[in-house]
Design a protein that fits this description.
The chain is mostly beta strands and about 425 residues long. The chain has two helices and 27 strands. The strands form six sheets. Strands 1, 2, 3, 25, 26 and 27 form a six-stranded antiparallel β-sheet that branches. The chain has a five-stranded antiparallel β-sheet with strand order 16-20-19-18-17, with no helix packed on it. Strands 4-5-6-7 form a four-stranded antiparallel β-sheet, with no helix packed on it. A hairpin with a 4-residue loop joins strand 26 and strand 27. The longest helix is centred in the N-terminal third of the chain and has 16 residues. It is globular and about 50 Å long. The two termini are about 25 Å apart. The N terminus is likely disordered.
């Protein structure tokens, strides 16, 4: 087999760069790496790096950060969901032919599969990237709180919002309407409650997380020691559960709704509806749904400051500084290993990226607040309508998965990078 002569030397440079990034990404037990370069439209290509093997939890992963490599655009496709509400039956081969009812959280698990929380059917679903088969791994499809000590697939959940994995591969689920967090053991599949007692309230700091009370917890994230951070949205707090002792404390918020003072001690300041949270570089990043901002809490000093958003509701600022941008309803957030923050804006129906190193913001998906009906597969992600999206995860292959919640679909963003046009000589 001969070596193909590419029409531009730049292709080989980018190919080698992509391969180097794949090798340096520290993928554990990777079986193969494929970099696919497809030339389209004369000067664009889709770069997709696919891997098999063990993937780490979101806060520990070191994925290929495509945004950090070059200013990219994205192509959008659908992975799962037929656009209709309804329960998801047993294992199904074609995930696009069945309901995925109000998907919220999305996360890549330690087996490389995508895990999806469905608020409408009260389940956690598993999407296999190789086979496109989808199955239920937690919840029986009925809303409630029951099943601790038994198999997770037989338990009752109530609006699971997000799913994460600890270093042991155990699955953690935050249930908003049950006001608690549950764990599914990696080996046995048995489900137990680890925080909250199922009753809405505001108590427990300094004691056991199991006896604490939350009021509509929304998001969870883990640090590299498996400590769990919880956005306790209606208590206007962010709380921390110590992995060793099980003790719960507040790290941000005094229980009162409001905007914190810049560089104030976070536990002495008000917060306003904290939702998405992420850890990076010694900081806890917090999205405020009603405050239309993103804060950063310094985990060493305990001080909090605004890093994005003016606090005025709207949609503006792309191409400028994040502090001068306007948001509307930021929900889920994700921080990449290289410091790019992705913000899901449920009311603007968009995904934005904030390069915290270059201090720049832009929209990478969604057609804006005026368009939300499902369309756009195969085309530019910024032209595709989304409808109140909630969750996003960055896969180890450098692509994204997001929940297009009210369109009842899970969608896939693939990076598209410019290629230098061929020299006619």
């Amino acid at each position: 087999m001969g070596v193909r002569q590419w029409h531009s030397g730049v292709d080989w440079v980018r190919f080698l760069v992509a391969m180097r990034e794949a090798v340096m990404a520290n993928w554990q037990r990777a079986c193969w790496v494929l970099v696919m370069l497809v030339l389209t439209m004369g000067n664009l290509r889709v770069v997709q790096v696919e891997t098999s093997g063990r993937a780490s939890a979101q806060t520990r992963a070191n994925p290929v950060d495509t945004v950090a490599q070059s200013p990219l655009s994205y192509r959008i496709d659908t992975l799962a969901g037929n656009g209709q509400p309804g329960d998801t039956p047993g294992a199904v081969k074609n995930a696009r032919e069945i309901p995925v009812d109000l998907p919220f959280g999305v996360e890549q698990g330690p087996d490389n599969a995508i895990y999806i929380t469905t608020v409408g059917s009260h389940r956690v679903l598993r999407y296999d990237l190789r086979s496109a088969k989808i199955s239920s791994v937690a919840g029986n499809g009925r809303a409630g709180y029951a099943g601790d000590g038994g198999q997770a697939t037989e338990a009752m959940l109530n609006q699971p919002y997000e799913v994460r994995f600890d270093s042991g591969g155990n699955m953690l689920i935050v249930e908003m309407q049950n006001h608690l967090i549950r764990r599914v053991a990696a080996e046995s599949g048995v489900i137990t409650t680890i925080a909250g007692d199922g009753v809405a309230g505001n108590r427990g700091d300094g004691g056991s997380a199991r006896r604490a009370r939350f009021r509509y917890p929304h998001s969870i994230t883990l640090d590299d020691q498996d400590n769990i951070y919880v956005s306790d949205i209606a208590n206007h707090r962010v709380r921390r559960i110590d992995a060793r002792s099980g003790r719960i404390t507040t790290v941000a918020g005094n229980g009162k709704p409001g905007m914190p003072r810049e560089q104030g001690q976070a536990t002495e300041q008000p917060l306003l509806s904290p939702q998405g949270i992420a850890i990076h570089g010694g900081g806890l990043w917090i999205a405020s749904f009603r405050g239309h901002v993103v804060w950063r809490l310094d985990l060493k000093t305990g001080r909090i400051r605004r890093v994005a958003g003016t606090g005025v509701q709207g949609y503006s600022g792309d191409g400028g500084r994040p502090l001068e941008a306007r948001f509307d309803g930021p929900r889920g957030i994700l921080m990449s290993a290289t410091g790019v923050l992705y913000v899901v804006e449920g009311e603007n129906n968009i995904i934005r990226s904030i390069d915290t190193t270059r201090d720049a913001i832009r929209t990478i998906a969604g057609a804006g607040p005026q368009r939300h009906r499902y369309a756009g597969d195969g085309g530019a992600a910024v032209d595709a309508p989304l409808w109140q999206p909630h969750g996003i995860c960055l896969l180890k292959n450098g692509t994204f998965v997001l929940s297009d919640t009210k369109n009842h679909r899970v969608r896939h963003l693939l990076p598209v990078v410019p290629v230098t046009p061929a020299d006619p000589d």
